[in-house]
Amino acid sequence: MSRLRRDLLLTGLTGLLLAAILAGGAVWLVTSRTLKPPLPYPLITWMFAAVLGAFSLAEIPLMVYTMRRLEIERRPEASGAGQGNRPAVLGLNALYVFFAAVYAIPVILFTGSLVWGLALCSLAVVRLATGLVFVARPVR
Question: Residue 30: which domain range?
Fold first, then answer.
Protein backbone atom coordinates (compact mmCIF):
# COMPACT_ATOMS: atom_id res chain seq x y z
CA MET A 1 0.00 0.00 0.00
CA SER A 2 1.43 3.36 -0.97
CA ARG A 3 1.93 6.07 1.60
CA LEU A 4 -0.80 8.20 -0.02
CA ARG A 5 -3.35 5.38 0.20
CA ARG A 6 -2.41 4.70 3.81
CA ASP A 7 -2.77 8.37 4.72
CA LEU A 8 -6.09 8.58 2.83
CA LEU A 9 -7.31 5.53 4.74
CA LEU A 10 -6.32 7.02 8.11
CA THR A 11 -7.87 10.43 7.45
CA GLY A 12 -10.94 8.77 5.93
CA LEU A 13 -11.37 6.58 9.00
CA THR A 14 -11.07 9.69 11.16
CA GLY A 15 -13.87 11.32 9.16
CA LEU A 16 -15.91 8.11 9.40
CA LEU A 17 -15.47 7.98 13.18
CA LEU A 18 -16.52 11.62 13.55
CA ALA A 19 -19.55 10.99 11.32
CA ALA A 20 -20.54 8.00 13.46
CA ILE A 21 -20.21 10.06 16.65
CA LEU A 22 -22.35 12.88 15.22
CA ALA A 23 -24.98 10.47 13.90
CA GLY A 24 -24.98 8.56 17.19
CA GLY A 25 -25.61 11.80 19.08
CA ALA A 26 -28.52 12.68 16.80
CA VAL A 27 -29.99 9.19 17.12
CA TRP A 28 -29.67 9.38 20.89
CA LEU A 29 -31.45 12.76 20.97
CA VAL A 30 -34.38 11.33 18.99
CA THR A 31 -34.65 7.91 20.66
CA SER A 32 -34.32 9.25 24.20
CA ARG A 33 -37.13 11.72 23.44
CA THR A 34 -34.85 14.59 24.44
CA LEU A 35 -35.74 16.17 21.11
CA LYS A 36 -39.14 15.78 19.52
CA PRO A 37 -38.84 15.92 15.70
CA PRO A 38 -40.96 18.82 14.41
CA LEU A 39 -41.70 17.29 10.97
CA PRO A 40 -42.45 13.56 11.39
CA TYR A 41 -44.44 13.30 8.16
CA PRO A 42 -43.55 10.59 5.60
CA LEU A 43 -43.71 12.91 2.57
CA ILE A 44 -41.42 15.49 4.19
CA THR A 45 -39.07 12.70 5.30
CA TRP A 46 -38.87 11.37 1.77
CA MET A 47 -38.31 14.86 0.32
CA PHE A 48 -35.54 15.66 2.83
CA ALA A 49 -33.85 12.31 2.18
CA ALA A 50 -34.12 12.65 -1.61
CA VAL A 51 -32.80 16.22 -1.78
CA LEU A 52 -29.99 15.76 0.73
CA GLY A 53 -29.10 12.37 -0.74
CA ALA A 54 -28.88 13.90 -4.21
CA PHE A 55 -26.54 16.61 -2.91
CA SER A 56 -24.44 14.03 -1.10
CA LEU A 57 -24.11 11.86 -4.21
CA ALA A 58 -23.49 14.81 -6.55
CA GLU A 59 -20.66 15.99 -4.33
CA ILE A 60 -18.72 12.74 -4.66
CA PRO A 61 -17.28 13.17 -8.18
CA LEU A 62 -16.58 16.86 -7.59
CA MET A 63 -14.60 16.24 -4.42
CA VAL A 64 -12.73 13.26 -5.87
CA TYR A 65 -11.75 15.34 -8.89
CA THR A 66 -10.65 18.24 -6.68
CA MET A 67 -8.54 16.08 -4.38
CA ARG A 68 -7.02 14.27 -7.33
CA ARG A 69 -6.08 17.52 -9.05
CA LEU A 70 -4.60 18.90 -5.83
CA GLU A 71 -2.48 15.79 -5.42
CA ILE A 72 -1.27 15.82 -9.03
CA GLU A 73 -0.61 19.51 -9.52
CA ARG A 74 1.93 20.24 -6.84
CA ARG A 75 3.99 17.23 -6.05
CA PRO A 76 6.68 17.23 -3.40
CA GLU A 77 10.14 18.00 -4.67
CA ALA A 78 12.43 15.07 -5.32
CA SER A 79 14.86 16.41 -2.74
CA GLY A 80 12.20 16.00 -0.03
CA ALA A 81 11.73 19.73 0.56
CA GLY A 82 8.06 20.45 1.14
CA GLN A 83 4.99 18.26 0.94
CA GLY A 84 3.16 19.92 -1.92
CA ASN A 85 -0.60 19.80 -1.51
CA ARG A 86 -0.64 16.53 0.45
CA PRO A 87 -1.81 18.09 3.77
CA ALA A 88 -4.67 19.84 1.97
CA VAL A 89 -5.69 16.61 0.22
CA LEU A 90 -5.67 14.65 3.47
CA GLY A 91 -7.63 17.31 5.34
CA LEU A 92 -10.18 17.50 2.54
CA ASN A 93 -10.48 13.72 2.57
CA ALA A 94 -11.37 13.66 6.27
CA LEU A 95 -13.89 16.46 5.76
CA TYR A 96 -15.27 14.80 2.63
CA VAL A 97 -15.96 11.52 4.42
CA PHE A 98 -17.36 13.28 7.51
CA PHE A 99 -19.71 15.48 5.49
CA ALA A 100 -22.07 12.58 4.76
CA ALA A 101 -23.21 12.93 8.38
CA VAL A 102 -23.89 16.63 7.86
CA TYR A 103 -26.43 15.67 5.20
CA ALA A 104 -27.92 12.94 7.40
CA ILE A 105 -28.39 14.89 10.63
CA PRO A 106 -31.26 17.14 9.44
CA VAL A 107 -33.20 14.05 8.36
CA ILE A 108 -32.75 12.47 11.78
CA LEU A 109 -33.41 15.57 13.86
CA PHE A 110 -36.23 17.17 11.85
CA THR A 111 -38.16 14.06 10.81
CA GLY A 112 -37.11 11.46 13.36
CA SER A 113 -36.48 8.91 10.59
CA LEU A 114 -33.57 6.81 11.75
CA VAL A 115 -33.67 4.58 8.69
CA TRP A 116 -33.33 7.37 6.13
CA GLY A 117 -30.91 9.34 8.28
CA LEU A 118 -28.59 6.41 8.86
CA ALA A 119 -28.83 5.45 5.19
CA LEU A 120 -27.58 8.92 4.27
CA CYS A 121 -24.88 8.69 6.93
CA SER A 122 -23.73 5.35 5.52
CA LEU A 123 -22.70 7.21 2.37
CA ALA A 124 -19.59 8.07 4.40
CA VAL A 125 -18.39 4.52 3.68
CA VAL A 126 -18.94 5.10 -0.05
CA ARG A 127 -17.01 8.36 0.23
CA LEU A 128 -14.16 6.61 2.03
CA ALA A 129 -14.00 3.97 -0.71
CA THR A 130 -14.07 6.49 -3.56
CA GLY A 131 -11.29 8.47 -1.92
CA LEU A 132 -9.13 5.38 -1.63
CA VAL A 133 -9.79 4.17 -5.15
CA PHE A 134 -9.77 7.36 -7.19
CA VAL A 135 -7.47 9.79 -5.36
CA ALA A 136 -4.11 8.26 -6.08
CA ARG A 137 -1.03 9.23 -7.98
CA PRO A 138 -1.41 8.33 -11.62
CA VAL A 139 1.19 5.94 -12.92
CA ARG A 140 3.47 7.69 -15.40
Answer: 3-134
**Is the residue at 59 inside a domain?**
yes
Residue 125 to residue 77: CA distance in whole angstroms = 33
What values do phi and psi take at 99, rounded to 5? -65, -15
When computed from its CA atoms, the radius of gyration of the chain, rounded to whole angstroms, is 18
The answer to whether position 140 is within a domain reads no
Let me know the angle formed at the C-alpha of 67 by 65 and 72, rounded to the nearest 5 degrees. 95
Max Cα–Cα distance, the chain, nearest Å: 60
Residues whose CB falls within 8 Å of the CB of residue 118, separated by 6 or more in sequence, listed in order: 23, 27, 104, 108
Is residue 93 situated within a structural domain?
yes
Domain count for the chain, please give it: 1
pLDDT in tens, 45-95: 999 999 999 999 999 999 999 999 998 886 655 545 567 889 999 999 999
Phi, psi angles (nearest 5°) of residue 60? -60, -55
pTM over 0.85? The answer is: yes
